[in-house]
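Try this one yourself first.
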């Protein structure tokens, strides 16, 4: 019997939850189909489906969705409102399912809802998801537990690898941004590639032990209630002593990021920091010029410190 093909767009929450999603689905005997990496064409396609006020990350997501049409039986588009009490996610994540369904009505979509404030847990959402695939509850729970364990172990491995990486004497720069921006080939990928060519050690803020979030976030602010931004602020506080400079990366026009980044810039001073906001009109040449100046400034500071 042919396996059910589940398409997952390589955008937005894919970069945070792909290990969990992929492991869960494969343990339910489904075939996972991933979209290709982001290109300029992906962005151009996504722009056709969304208005100009949508952020670049959303446009990239819709470009990936379009790229999966005809290649799978279902798309996986979770609806996530909140994952911690009294905290929220960007409204894009709660609207994503409805928006995708309206834009691509011919495509079947797997639905699951996570909203802790209304007692809809992650486990409940995955049981809901598995039932749509007509799987037994015991098998669904088992697949979820395996996926959750794999996700946690993968994160711990990345944290350990990054800690070892930061022991180097080379220049170290921390990139602070949502994983879907940090690792997308047309967003953070452009920046990390340039830095590595300049022999800079690049650290990523999503490689962080999440149970420390509330403790480390307070160092800068305890006022932010967007969960993912709280995690980034906490990670920045944690890694701050170990790096020479910080890049704040966002896509235009992200509301939660604009407030969180402003708070970081005002309250965390002492090390070189640059804010980069990407959109579909960002010039690679202009971006490289800014990065070159930023790296040169850090080099000069390191040289002055060494000659004291």
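Now uncover the answer:
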């Amino acid at each position: 019997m042919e396996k059910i093909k589940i398409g997952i767009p390589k955008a937005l929450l894919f970069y945070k939850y792909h290990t969990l999603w992929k492991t869960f689905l494969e343990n339910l005997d489904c075939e996972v189909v991933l979209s290709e990496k982001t290109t300029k064409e992906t962005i151009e396609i996504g722009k056709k489906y969304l208005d100009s006020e949508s952020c670049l990350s959303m446009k990239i997501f819709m470009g990936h969705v379009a790229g999966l049409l005809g290649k799978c039986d279902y798309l996986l588009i979770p609806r996530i409102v909140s994952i911690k009490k009294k905290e929220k996610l960007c409204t894009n994540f709660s609207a994503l399912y409805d928006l995708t369904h309206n834009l691509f009505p011919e495509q079947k979509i797997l639905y699951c809802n996570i909203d802790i404030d209304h007692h809809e847990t992650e486990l409940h959402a995955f049981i809901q998801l598995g039932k749509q695939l007509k799987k037994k509850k015991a098998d669904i729970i088992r697949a979820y537990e395996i996926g959750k364990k794999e996700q946690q172990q993968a994160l711990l491995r990345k944290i350990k690898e990054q800690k070892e990486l930061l022991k180097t004497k080379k220049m170290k720069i921390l990139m602070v941004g949502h994983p879907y921006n940090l690792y997308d080939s047309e967003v953070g990928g452009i920046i990390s590639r340039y830095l590595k060519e300049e022999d800079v050690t690049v650290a990523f803020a999503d490689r962080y032990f999440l149970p420390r979030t509330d403790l480390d976030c307070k160092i800068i602010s305890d006022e932010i209630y967007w969960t993912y931004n709280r995690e980034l602020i906490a990670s920045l506080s944690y890694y701050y002593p170990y790096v020479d400079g910080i890049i704040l990366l966002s896509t235009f026009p992200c509301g939660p990021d604009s407030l969180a980044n402003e708070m970081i810039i005002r309250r965390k001073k002492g090390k070189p920091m640059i804010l980069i906001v990407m959109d579909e009109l960002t010039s690679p040449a202009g971006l490289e010029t800014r990065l070159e100046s930023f790296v040169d400034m850090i080099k000069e500071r390191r040289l002055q410190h060494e000659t004291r």
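Discussion: The chain has two domains: 5-150, 166-306. The beta strands are 5-8, 31-34, 74-76, 79-82, 109-110, 113-115, 172-176, 201-204, 245-251, 273-278.
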